[in-house]
Task: inverse folding
């Protein structure tokens, strides 16, 4: 897909139960770079490789979960256009003023039929990666912590999967990459959608409660980096849900684990490229275990039950 | 370093748990069963227990799953408490698995249970 509309996931605001503990954990264990705090006390982070000011925002709250997930769009005209199309589609939108998030322009926020707040924005200060853009060196990853490449995608759990899929594909220009069918062979249990040529920029699973977070995912460079991440997790007694293993869906190698508030995160590597002329991949009800965890070939209890 | 004995009232199963470890971690580390294991970090609520006897120290846990009143009465997430004496507890939490309820059941009950209530077992083909 020509990348002229929605470009990529840009930020996730995650609720944490103990902000200072979480700031230390996201800095030392995840290896993210602290990028300051705002007047509300929210803490900002980016990866070393990301060029925009931040991708993860932590907010102190009395329950875990995700407040919103944001996508960067090409420019302000594109943002205005998406807002108009959302309204025409029948979705109420809200403009969040520039500066509400540090170094970030106006955001258009709306609630999708799974109950999640999604945002679009066009402007965020380009502070640069750890190596810059002028004849850069390789970024030698000798920092403490997992040090992912980028915020890559989220998997959200919510009620009206069909409505959310329709909105992402018809209004925001996402394409369907993979899906899992329920036992009737018709209804989607889950969908993997992309706004780019990645295997997914958002994934959605049908769930009895609206607005739930399954995981926020960070990209790593290789399977060896996934194993290194697992070593860092065990050394730091991080709660691991599953892995290291591989997904059938997207082909990514993966670890699911939890932050200090119980929000599931993923570090993954690999996957394949998707173009919009490709037929979506479909997984049957009987093969969903192999689709989710390719080596175990069965789901674990937590995959379907543990969300924040 | 001290150990205490944790007893799960339903099964009578007991295990030795370090006072530096959560009650849930202590169970898992010995391969024991009885309390559902979720995020282990106070966020998801599946490991909720009622402490019937004994003392413990606790950490912050999600209000989506444990109210202040519940917490005060010993109804807590077992991943967020460490034993300060021998403990006896009753398991409350469950794996809800309400992702994949049969379509007929979902149609009959379009309003899902709020997260603070345990779902009926058997409402999902995954059970």
Result:
């Amino acid at each position: 897909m020509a990348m002229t509309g929605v470009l990529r996931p840009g930020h996730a605001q995650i609720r944490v139960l103990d902000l200072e503990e979480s700031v230390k954990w996201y800095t030392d264990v995840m290896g993210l770079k602290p990028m300051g705090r705002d007047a509300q006390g929210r803490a900002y982070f980016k990866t070393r490789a990301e060029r925009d000011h931040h991708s993860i925002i932590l907010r102190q709250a009395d329950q875990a979960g995700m407040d919103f997930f944001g996508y960067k769009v090409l420019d302000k005209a594109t943002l205005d256009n998406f807002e108009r199309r959302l309204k025409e589609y029948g979705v109420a939108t809200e403009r969040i003023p520039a500066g509400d998030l540090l170094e970030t322009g106006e955001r258009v926020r709306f609630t999708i039929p799974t109950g999640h707040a999604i945002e679009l924005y066009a402007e965020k200060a380009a502070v640069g990666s750890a190596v810059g853009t002028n004849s850069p060196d390789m970024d030698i990853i000798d920092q403490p912590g997992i040090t992912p490449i980028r915020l890559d995608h989220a998997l959200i759990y919510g009620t009206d999967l069909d409505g959310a899929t329709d909105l992402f594909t018809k209004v925001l220009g996402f394409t369907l990459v993979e899906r899992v069918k329920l036992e009737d062979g018709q209804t989607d249990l889950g969908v993997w959608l992309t706004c780019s040529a990645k295997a997914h920029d958002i994934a959605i699973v049908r769930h009895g409660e609206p607005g739930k977070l399954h995981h926020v995912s960070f990209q790593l460079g290789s399977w060896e980096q996934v194993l290194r991440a697992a070593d860092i997790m065990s050394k730091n007694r991080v709660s691991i849900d599953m892995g290291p293993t591989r997904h059938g869906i997207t082909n990514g190698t993966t670890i699911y684990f939890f932050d200090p508030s119980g929000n599931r995160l993923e570090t993954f590597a690999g996957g394949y490229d998707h173009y919009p002329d490709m037929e979506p991949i479909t997984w049957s009800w009987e093969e969903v275990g192999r689709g989710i965890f390719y080596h175990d070939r069965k789901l674990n209890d937590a995959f379907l039950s543990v969300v924040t | 370093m001290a150990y205490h004995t944790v007893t799960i009232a339903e099964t009578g199963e007991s295990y030795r748990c370090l006072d530096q470890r959560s009650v849930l971690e202590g169970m898992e580390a010995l391969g024991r069963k009885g309390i559902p294991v979720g995020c282990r970090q106070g966020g998801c609520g599946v490991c909720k227990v009622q402490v019937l006897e004994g003392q413990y120290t606790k950490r912050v846990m999600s209000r989506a799953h444990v109210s202040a009143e519940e917490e005060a009465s010993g109804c807590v997430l077992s991943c967020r408490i460490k034993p300060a004496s021998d403990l006896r507890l009753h398991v409350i939490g469950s794996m809800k698995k309400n992702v994949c309820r049969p379509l007929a059941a979902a149609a009959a009950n379009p309003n899902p249970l709020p997260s603070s209530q345990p779902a009926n077992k058997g409402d999902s083909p995954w059970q």
